[in-house]
């Protein structure tokens, strides 16, 4: 009887221990499921790092001569809107559908809906650490600055800048990780190329609104895609487009007391970025020939008739020059008696 009692006590003690272990395991698993997944989950650097972001527009008429907007409005950039976040959140992503907020920003430069989406993501799944913005640039070339704060659990940076004018085109970065294991990166530079938000079907910078139904995914615009001669970025002789912008993110230094120390010269950083301007050759584009005109000349003798064509697009940057726009051939005069 005593043996049975002792066995029972041991069994109960064992079950009690199992319950404690099980409860602890559930707690750990529950906490783990709340952690962000992906590269930023292994960041063991100090909690917070501050950076300066320098955006430089390289959208010049020399680099992008085709249909370059000179007025109403001229080539320019919208304000920059960005966020530091974990891998649970994406502001935008290539080959996925743009949110309503990204659509409004890419088409009209309106940030209200996108801001609301960011705030909602931060409140619901705590995936957003901070929002940052930089002023617009009033020309295709120029630079703008902002500061941002990254956290060890929110080490990814994303942002968008609208190309103005355009149907729904933008440049940006998706989930750039500023953390590298146990330390923060000192500097990161990314060449930027145009993207189509997939919400408007316009081909040119000044195309009128023409909604894409059904909505398409976000795609990169290249020198051959969309494959249509009317497209403002269509340069079939190029292997790839030159970068239309560039962004450099520089870690701000702090002294031993944790106060801001000597900072990098951001103007110099911008000048380094803009040290070369590529020239994209643009070939002459001409129309089809018109119909032949009337045959002119004296009856009984050989006459001549002509046809014409006109220049659709003037050549630039040593592109193929325009051919003759008039052509003449022999004929027999019309209506001779």
From TrEMBL:
Say yes or no: keyword Iron-sulfur present.
no
Q: Pfam families under this entry?
A: Spond_N, TSP1_spondin
Biological process terms from the Gene Ontology for this record are: cell adhesion; cellular response to lipopolysaccharide; defense response to fungus; defense response to virus; induction of bacterial agglutination; innate immune response; mast cell mediated immunity; opsonization
Intracellular or extracellular location(s):
Secreted, Extracellular space, Extracellular matrix
Keyword Calcium recorded: yes
Q: Which UniProt keywords apply?
A: Calcium, Cell adhesion, Disulfide bond, Extracellular matrix, Glycoprotein, Immunity, Innate immunity, Metal-binding, Secreted, Signal
- Mind telling me which InterPro entries this protein's record contains? Spondin/Thrombospondin_T1 (IPR051418), Spondin_N (IPR009465), Spondin_N_sf (IPR038678), TSP1_rpt (IPR000884), TSP1_rpt_sf (IPR036383), TSP1_spondin_dom (IPR044004)
Domain Spondin residues, every copy: 39-229
Single Gene Ontology MF annotation: metal ion binding
How is this protein annotated for GO cellular component? extracellular matrix; extracellular space
**Domain of life where this protein originates:** Eukaryota
This protein's assembly is summarised as:
Monomer. Interacts with integrin.
| Name of protein | Spondin-2
What species is this protein from? Chrysemys picta bellii
The top of its lineage is: Eukaryota, Metazoa, Chordata, Craniata, Vertebrata
């Amino acid at each position: 009887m005593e043996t049975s009692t002792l066995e029972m006590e041991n069994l109960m003690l064992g079950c009690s221990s199992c319950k404690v272990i099980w409860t602890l395991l559930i707690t750990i698993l529950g906490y783990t499921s709340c952690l962000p997944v992906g590269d930023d989950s292994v960041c063991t650097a100090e909690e917070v790092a501050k950076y300066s972001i320098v955006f430089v527009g390289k959208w010049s008429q020399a680099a992008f001569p085709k249909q370059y907007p000179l007025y109403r409005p001229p080539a320019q950039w919208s304000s920059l809107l960005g966020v530091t976040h974990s891998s649970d959140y994406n502001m935008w992503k290539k080959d996925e559908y743009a949110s309503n907020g990204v659509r409004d920003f890419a088409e009209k430069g309106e940030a209200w809906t996108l801001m609301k989406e960011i705030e909602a993501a931060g409140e619901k799944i705590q995936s957003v650490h901070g929002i940052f913005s930089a002023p617009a640039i009033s020309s295709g070339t120029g630079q703008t600055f902002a500061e941002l704060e990254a956290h060890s659990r929110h080490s990814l940076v994303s942002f968008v800048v609208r190309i103005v004018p355009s149907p729904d085109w933008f440049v940006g970065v998706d989930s750039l990780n500023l953390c590298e294991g146990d330390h923060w990166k000192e500097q990161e530079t990314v060449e930027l190329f145009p993207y189509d938000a997939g919400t408007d079907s316009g081909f040119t910078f000044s195309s009128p609104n023409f909604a894409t139904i059904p909505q398409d995914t976000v795609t990169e615009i290249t020198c051959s895609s969309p494959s249509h001669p009317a497209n403002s970025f269509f340069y079939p002789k190029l292997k790839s487009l030159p970068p239309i912008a560039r962004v450099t993110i520089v870690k701000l230094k702090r002294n031993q007391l944790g106060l801001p120390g000597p900072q990098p010269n951001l103007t110099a950083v911008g000048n380094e970025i803009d040290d070369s301007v590529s020239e994209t050759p643009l070939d002459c584009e001409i129309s089809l020939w018109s119909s032949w005109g009337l045959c002119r000349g004296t009856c009984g003798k050989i006459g001549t008739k002509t046809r014409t064509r006109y220049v659709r697009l003037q050549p630039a940057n040593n592109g193929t020059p325009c051919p003759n726009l008039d052509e003449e051939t022999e004929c027999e005069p019309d209506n001779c008696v």
